[in-house]
Amino acid sequence: MAKGTQDEPSTGLHHFMGLELELGPDVLVPREETEILGKTALGLLPDGQPATVIDMCCGSGNLALAVASNKASASVWGADLTDSTVATARRNVERLRLGDRVTILQGDLFGALDGKGLEGQVDLIVCNPPYISTGRLETESAHLLESEPREAFDGGPYGISIHQRLVRDAVAFLKPGGWLAFEFGVGQERQAASLVTRAKAYEPVEFVHDDEGRPRVAKVRKLP
Questions:
Q1: CA of 19: how far to CAs of 3, 25, 77, 108, in Å?
Q2: Nearest to 101 by CA among 79, 71, 122
């Protein structure tokens, strides 16, 4: 498996959670830490039960396709902003022959889902949003932009601009008791917890750690 690192270029085919995915110069390479998010998502969906899932900021479609491949009863919606990313995700859906259960849409976060009747119907929302601050992308993390798009990394002035919108806007789409699971950067767990608390719509946040014991994924349940 060609596991992604922050220095790995996004070209050719890559493997993610047992799937072979097409990438390209305008699409983020799925990182190793995103497999933590993928496995967390699968653990939140009971086997054999129908489920509606959203993969927000879907990129190559890696999380959407991992969920659909492992949960045969899941209906999955993926959404991303740019033409090239959406086109790549759709090709991966076709490659894996999952078009009957995975739909990729284009738009600005949940705006991509307008008119689809998903409000209050979703069991799980997963998201691997950009989470590097704009300032860091101009300095010590500038090398990331040599081979991958700014949109995949730039999380605004503090690295959590997309997280803020995600946590706030996911509430309208989740069922009572539905789950939100998202990735964040090293050292951002306090910011993530604060966003969840301020939303006043979720149970207390739980963190999932990487192999080095660092929190990298948040999972949180919408209040009943």
A1: 12, 19, 18, 27
A2: 71
Chain centroid, CA 157 distance in Å: 20
Q: Are 126 and 61 in contact (CB under 8 A)?
A: no
Query: Order of strands across the sheet with 174-183?
Result: 102-106, 74-80, 51-56, 122-127, 174-183, 215-221, 206-209
Measured distance CA(112)–CA(107) in Å, rounded: 4
pLDDT 10s digits, 139-177: 444 333 344 444 444 444 445 789 999 999 999 999 999
What distance lies between CA 213 and its chain's CA centroid?
A: 21
Q: Token digits for 13?
A: 């085919």
Query: Taking the CB of residue 205, how many other CB atoms lie within 10 A of it?
Result: 19
Q: What is the pTM of this model?
A: 0.85
Contacts with 128 (C-beta within 8 Å, 6 or more apart), sequence order = 34, 37, 57, 59, 63, 182, 183
- Could you give all domains of the chain from N- to C-terminal order, each with its CATH number? 13-221 (3.40.50.150)
* Helix (H), strand (E) at residue 183: strand 174-183
